[in-house]
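Lesson 9: reading folded outputs for more than one chain in a single document. The general rule is that every protein is listed as its sequence immediately followed by its structure tokens, and records are never interleaved. Here is the first one.
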Amino acid sequence: MLEDHKAGIPLTEDERRLFFAYLDDPENIRLLESFISEDLLNVNPDQIDEKQKTESLENLYKRLAIPSDEHKEATPVRKLLKWKIGWAAIFIIGICSVAVLVLSRREQFLTAKNQNDHIIKKSLITPGKNGAVLTLADGKQIVLDSMQNGVISVAGNGQASLANGKLNYKAVQVSGQQAAIAYNTISTPLGRQYQVQLSDGTSVWLNAASSIRFPAVFSGKDRVVEISGEAYFEVVHNSKMPFKVKAGNQVIEDIGTHFDIKAYSDEPLVKTTLVEGAVSVSTATQHVTLEPGEQASAASGGINVVKVDIDEVMAWKSGFFAFDDASFDDIMRQLSRWYNVSVEYHNAGNGQRFTGKIDRSLPLADVLNGLQFSKAHFKIDENERKIIVLP
């Protein structure tokens, strides 16, 4: 539906009624205001001339069937748009996409339940949060999200300190013989994400259902870690001791860089995306070097390199889902990991594709209600923690 509005197709009567029913609640108006503000942080009103501003805003009013200035009565929508968004914001965002996109991201449909049979009631299933499990070299497991700040003994010449939801490793001096290498693993369950700083200063962010295995202290000729799931790295470069990541059938070597690796077992490809600097990506049969903005996808047929949208790839780290012509299955996999739910298909999605950006802090019901704008329908089984995709 959003694409229709961008193309100039007005809201239908049902959509308009749903929209105004939503705005009957002052709290919903406040939420709409806050999300518009969030989406417009980078807008520069001085770059838009006054004629464009006026025409764009009036065009939006007409498509939403909001009374124009010649009418004495101002609707809540008109008051909100004119006051908060301003003329330039309407022009920048594009006709009608502001209202429709924002509504797809919050509790917009809950107050209009009687107008739509597919409204999903407010659910107890909440979004993921910070947390992980640390497995030490001796097999002992520590649930990090339930621990207080403090120092953790990790064996070998390493020490880890927990502070404000982040685990920081460092090398410590130990008298006598060189201690044996102690490998630790940090794993994020479904519905969790976590950040760790390795002993060399490299920072790693783990997405949901991911893990990293690493030595508590690096030694030898290179620094090698292994991951599954998705992780973003900001590597402290050391040409004398290269940093390497093993992920699926790839080995990624840092050349002074920030990069993301997506290597879930239920994904068809292992994908390495370079954000900054340079990396080399190798398989048993091929080797490539990436430039910023490039993504390497490795499968049995070799490595394929394409240009990608960095903001979309890194949206998870910034607290969003970002979809650009994403498949139904791709979206369901992401929701499943972040909300710790399974997916039951009574409908395969009929080849639908999705484009948009959704806040990962929203309850599951709100996200699914937003997706229903694209004629996909769902229900939630809270007892089984399951999304059911309806026919």
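And here is the second record, again sequence then tokens.
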Amino acid sequence: MNIKKTNIKKILFVTLTNIGDLVLTLPVLGVLKKEFPKASITVLAGSEAGEIVRADSSVSDILIYNKRATLLDKLKLILKLRSMVFDMAVDMRHSLFPILVGARYRTPIFKSPDRAIHRKKKHLNILSAMGISTEDAPFPSLFSREDRLKVNALLSKKGVLPDDKIIVIAPGAKSHMKRWKIDGFMDVCLRLSKEANTIVAIIGDSTDKAMGSQMIANSEGKAYDLSGAFNLRELAYFLSLSKLLITNDSAPLHIAGLVDIPVIAIFGPTDHEKYGPISPGSVVLRKGLSCSPCEQAVCEFDLECMKQISSKDVLNAVDRILLL
């Protein structure tokens, strides 16, 4: 596909629904910004997760697509998009949107074979197929000055100093299948909270507060439950201040990759080759059971692949990364 860059004035970027999936499409947004610096970009996101791109100056508008909306509302959205007259439509969902909005240049509807490659590369390959260079794919701006000020004020209120070493633990995950045992997270929090000049911060959404409370009650030293304290952009900035993230296969894992901090990622039923951490120095913890990764919604073996991962495995990985 021969694309004349000067002809591209308006781009529609259709991204994915879940936060983690959306984050893995952001390098595509970064390439569009780099390759078409004079174009305005409208993001169509499947949920409020699209707010994570709000801080990027190249994003002119964010529209929310609700797949449960009425047919009339969906038609109104399509008509609105058509009236905006896009020159290019880049669709991570492989939907009919690029055709329906009448974009001259558009990504194909049909998906390429689902090879065992990382989702970041798979998404970038969609641009490569259009003849767009994806070398040195930059990440878009994730947080604003206001986001930084809010996070810094919260940390100051809790007495967190600039020289403190912040280790972040994210015990939650959208699916229970991806969650490591809470007792393991409690052991890890207890050990790390005893370290000098170390702050342990528990993150997650408001539904993770029960786990955060358990871990804080079992900790010693400086440990804080920050579940529900940040929006996605603020979380990105907070992670950028941290030395390490310990997490399941979840959205914070992918956000940490965008701000380039090392991750200890605990994997069981999902495939680390597709969804593992991308930041340098990261470690994937998994047990090589014959059934893992199964990528199934239900486990026949009582999540043995997760249960076999011990707190000692996690703490050894922490020691290797941070040399505690």
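What the second record shows: The CA atoms of residues 94 and 109 lie 5 Å apart.
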